[in-house]
């Protein structure tokens, strides 16, 4: 049997230019074990990707703030403190940086994401003033302002409980600091070559290949192992 997977999306199932790599649509629909999409993106994005992969909607969204498994949605993060921090950031002249593109946060339930163009020192200063309730996570694609303690790893424990699978049985692939908690909970973890330092340090293996090249290599190896 192939193992269950927990896969980040951006930087892990994508090309360098941020598109979903077409191999995701070849390798994942028929994977013969649960596939969990674990992302910093707002809830609808991984639901839509699962849907179009023809898979059960088993997702960890918003860095663990929202978990959906077995038809049930659980909200594990509280948006109040993150929203207050971003409001204070705006009052200090900060700009979240998305312009009119409100689809980044429109459906986000538990955190707020800011563009990498946003003023990071100001954001971190304002977040620090919230006294530990809020943390800023840099995924390489956005700054995420989220409640402290919410994580993809805790989300994976929730998914494991619901599916009756020990989190230790999952194989994880990711690329950034928001994947470190997943790597700590999963039994086997891989950072793609484009991963940041936090993900590299947390992973069991740092791959030589980047983006979906790296992820596809892991899936091929897992399949080969299954055939032995
Ligand atoms: Mg990522």
Describe the structure.
- Helix 3 (80-91) crosses helix 4 (120-128).
- By secondary structure, this protein is an alpha/beta fold.
- The chain is built from 8 helices and 11 strands.
- The strands form 2 sheets. An 8-stranded mixed sheet has the order 5-4-3-2-1-9-10-11, with helices on both faces. Strands 6-8-7 form a 3-stranded antiparallel sheet.
- The chain has 2 domains: 5-76 and 150-227, Rossmann fold, CATH 3.40.50.1000; 80-147, Hypothetical Protein Ta0175, Chain: A, domain 2 (Alpha-Beta Complex), CATH 3.90.1070.
- It has helices at residues 24-27, 44-53, 80-91, 120-128, 152-163, 180-185, 197-202, 211-226; strands at 5-7, 35-38, 59-61, 66-69, 72-75, 112-114, 134-138, 143-147, 171-174, 188-191, 205-206.
- Helix content is 33%, strand content 18%.
- It is globular.
- Bound molecules: magnesium ion.
- Residues 8, 10-12, 139, 174-176 line the site of magnesium ion.
């Amino acid at each position: 049997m192939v193992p269950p997977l927990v896969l980040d999306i951006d930087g892990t199932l994508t090309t360098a230019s941020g598109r979903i790599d077409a191999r995701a649509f070849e390798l994942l629909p028929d994977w013969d074990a649960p596939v969990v999409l674990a992302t910093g993106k707002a809830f609808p994005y991984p639901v839509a990707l699962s849907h179009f992969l023809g898979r059960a909607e088993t997702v960890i969204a918003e860095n663990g703030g929202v978990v959906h498994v077995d038809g049930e949605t659980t909200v594990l993060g509280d948006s109040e403190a993150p929203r207050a921090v971003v409001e204070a950031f705006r009052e200090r002249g900060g700009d979240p940086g998305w312009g009119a593109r409100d689809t980044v946060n429109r459906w986000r339930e538990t955190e707020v994401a800011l563009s990498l163009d946003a003023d990071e020192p100001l954001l971190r200063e304002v977040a620090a003033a919230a006294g530990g309730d809020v943390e800023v996570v840099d995924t390489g694609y956005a700054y995420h302002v989220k409640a402290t303690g919410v994580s993809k790893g805790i989300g994976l424990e929730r998914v494991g409980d619901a599916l009756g699978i020990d989190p230790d049985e999952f194989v994880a692939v990711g690329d950034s600091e928001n994947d470190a908690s997943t790597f700590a909970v999963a039994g086997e973890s891989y950072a793609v070559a484009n991963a940041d330092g936090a993900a590299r340090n947390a992973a069991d293996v740092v791959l030589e290949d980047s983006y979906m090249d790296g992820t596809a290599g892991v899936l091929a190896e897992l399949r080969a192992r299954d055939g032995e």
